[in-house]
Amino acid sequence: xxxxxRYLLYRLKSSLWRTVFLTLLSLVFALSVADxxxxxxxxxxxxxxxxxxxxxLGVFATLIPILELSGFKNxxxxxxxxxxxxxxxxxxxxxxLSGLAQIFVIYSVSFFSVWAFLAINTSCFALGxxxxxxxxxxxxxxxxxxxxxxxxxxxxxxxDGIIFCGLWALVLFLLIWTxxxxxxxxxxxxxxxxEETSDLASWGTLYTPINNLTVIFxxxxxxxxxxxxxxxxxxxxxxxxxxxxMYMFFIWGGIGIAAAIGYFISFTKREAQAAGEISTxxxxxxxxxxxxxxxxxxxxxxxxxxxxxxxxxxxxxxxxYRRGIRLKRSDVILTACAIIxxxxxxxxx
Length: 349
Fold this sequence. Notes:
Layout: H1 3-14, H2 16-37, H3 51-69, H4 75-81, H5 88-121, H6 130-153, H7 158-184, H8 191-202, H9 208-221, H10 228-231, H11 234-243, H12 247-269, H13 285-300, H14 305-322, H15 329-336, H16 339-347
Helix pairs in contact: 1-5, 2-5, 3-5, 3-6, 3-9, 5-6, 5-12, 6-7, 6-9, 6-12, 7-8, 7-13, 9-11, 13-14, 13-16
């Protein structure tokens, strides 16, 4: 067996008991939700509860890459990790595949257990669609996993990595919403276009695609709606909206591919001595603090105590970034530039 294969096997064995525990935990939650959702007395109101599968996939596609890569944020562990006689690129691939394998096992066991439960205990659902849902949901789980792996790799500490992942998960939503509020509202004449841009903004979170895919397949699978249940079937209404914006799935697919490439590039080029130090990546505080600060000021669109709070939060962000109150000149300048969106709101809006 090659060094690559031995290290991959080592990683899988090291995470075996964690995978077993998380799989059993997920299985209990998944079957409990499926049992609750199918227990309605009338067939028309029974639901599959497959949203719990999307939740499981989203949670572990976020948690596993952090657990898998956290060892590279501690300088004391790096001598051991870099001891193995394989290149940086192969080392990155091992940890990427190891995390994927863990997610695949956890999700697959939960998924097929819920599918079997629904097949045995119900007869009112079109369960044939579960095959397509399984394949497509795994792809979207891979997107989440790749984005988290890339962003976490850009940090030099575990805490910074978690903060970066949390902020990047929402940044596209806030960006679309800012453009919508500041530059689209005054150009829109018909209300329906304003509502459509709101739907588009909702696609901006990292976890929206897996949620929307689940809603679409809930509508396809839960064919038991009749009478009043069909009239007030919000799943069908939302599924129709999401189907009109199918192109967003492909956009997120592209983001996932770019993130996977970025992960391997970042992993192979990262210097070992950077572990535990201040995270200076452009994908970290340097970009996120001013980006969030300016966008929040534009979206809020008022000048009051909340404006002061947002600017103060920017300063807090820089203090966290620099690990102290001794800020650099660039930090002060970027914070002072918050006056630009404030003046924009006052004079233009």
